[in-house]
Amino acid sequence: QVRLQESGPGLVKPSQTLSLICTVSGGSITTTYYAWNWIRQSPGKGLEWMGVIAYDGSTAYNPSLESRTSVSRDTSKNQFSLQLSSLTPEDTAVYYCVRGRGYEYEYWGQGTQVTVSS
Asked: 69-92 burial string, b = 16+ CB within 10 Å, else e?
């Protein structure tokens, strides 16, 4: 059974950089064809895909967030991470790490609430 668990600060200040880690168990992040995504949901809004790191280490980002977003991985720890810079209150959301394959999102973490406030 694949499990994903997000970790990181629940409260960050405007202009700071958010760093989140997703720890994966039950499967390797280097297994062929799987992609490891970050998705968020702001209050009253739908899901927003932020970025992905694939099994081979390649990355892709939502164009609207690309200038502020970085996704990386630590294969020795079977973790991947998100960094989002220049935070504003509009970045307040529940952040999810998600395993995908093709056009399907197969496994989701439970999500972590991040609030941007001074």
From this structure: bbbebeeeebbbbbebeebeeebb
